[in-house]
């Protein structure tokens, strides 16, 4: 969808040796790699581990572009190790494979992609320990089972509780403003008739936190703080 914005820059990108990959059928100009064709032609069989396994877990896995609060967005390096650690995110906040996670955050940021999608993949089975505190453990002791993830293309405060009831949502991943949008909605019948038990995210103001729980019921809230380019994450377990 965004290729038209990149196309005028192709000559300068080629001069700088920058490869351009596009997910879509094309056609595209020479020098642009159409990923869909390669995906369609790829075998379903995994290559041997020595082909795809990183030589060093601290090597770069991907780049996440930060929001650019001090200028243009900047590419933050994310290692293979940090990506793997994101598998434990939902396990650390008390979710399990029985949960249904509601995700309406952009997937080009770390919260939506690595913590949200990858976190759902890594959730352990109830009572089997999951990934809690076991980075580097014997893989045979890890029991990921995965949780159901409900992806919403765009957050809608007016549709949120209807979505939760329709999809059986039990966990909500937010940024603080999303909870404020919900609190600012006009009151309507059935706001407390839902299965949501856990909300986890960043940037929730104390006044919105209190209003959210008073209005929508005893939803447990776990506030976290971290950065794509940082190496420390904080969890508020106590509320």
UniProtKB/TrEMBL annotation:
SUPFAM superfamilies, A to Z: Acetyl-CoA synthetase-like
Domain AMP-dependent synthetase/ligase: 48-124, 145-233
UniProt entry keywords in alphabetical sequence: Ligase, Lipid metabolism
GO molecular function: long-chain fatty acid-CoA ligase activity
Catalytic activity: tetracosanoate + ATP + CoA = tetracosanoyl-CoA + AMP + diphosphate; a very long-chain fatty acid + ATP + CoA = a very long-chain fatty acyl-CoA + AMP + diphosphate
Domain of life (superkingdom): Eukaryota
Cellular component, GO annotation: endoplasmic reticulum membrane; plasma membrane
Pfam families: AMP-binding
Family under the similarity heading: Belongs to the ATP-dependent AMP-binding enzyme family.
Protein's recorded name: Long-chain-fatty-acid--CoA ligase
Species, as recorded: Vidua chalybeata (Village indigobird)
Gene name tied to this protein: Slc27a3_0
